[in-house]
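User: Second chain of the day. Same drill as before.
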Amino acid sequence: MLIDRLLLLSCFCICFFFQTSMAQDFPALPSAKEKPLSIYPNPANDVLNIDIKKAGLEGITVEVFNIIGNPVNVSMETIGNNSFRIDVKDLAPGYYMVMVKDEQARFKQALKFLKQ
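Assistant: Same format as last time:
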């Protein structure tokens, strides 16, 4: 759990640093491959949709953390194969991280989103 929090906090810091300072200085590079995880809309008001495009995942867990790495209780529903919808309307405005894990496939990815 401590390792997950440290990973989450470091991902947030790196994402925030690149988004605020360096991302505007360099043109976007084309992606060599499709991203395995996408979240939308970002920023979110009521719901956050998660689409997982990586094949072979089973037993997926999705967690939401606040900016300091504490878990946040949210309701989540499965809307399709490897697609989820998280209710974020009761969250306070600010930045959050969503972490998607599959321990069996050794898949773990965290993405930042903004709740308006």
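The radius of gyration is 14 Å.

User: Great, on to the next one.
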